[in-house]
Amino acid sequence: MFRVTLDGIIMVYVVIILCSVFFSWLAAEVFRRGKESRRRKHFVVCAICDQLYEDRSSEELSDCPKCGARNERERVSDI
Ligand SMILES: [Zn+2]
User: Fold this and answer.
1) Domain spans in the chain, listed from the N-terminal domain onward
2) For 71, which of 5, 18, 32, 59 is 20 to 30 Å away at the CA?
3) In angstroms, what is the span from residue 64 Cα to ligand 1's centroid?
């Protein structure tokens, strides 16, 4: 049998609370990035006129609504 002190109990509670806060934050961050990635998948930047437009089709090439150029779907980079 081991002795349990008040300091030990408080330390265990603090560690449990900090771990739960950390993993909650981590889960929220992963969920937010996944949602952002799914949202950005539908945006295309035209290589000719730099027009940003939304294309919800699943085709690899999409037509720019401004200049009519065919653009490959790629990720929109952060600024
Ligand atoms: Zn264009």
Assistant:
1) 1-40, 42-73
2) 32
3) 5
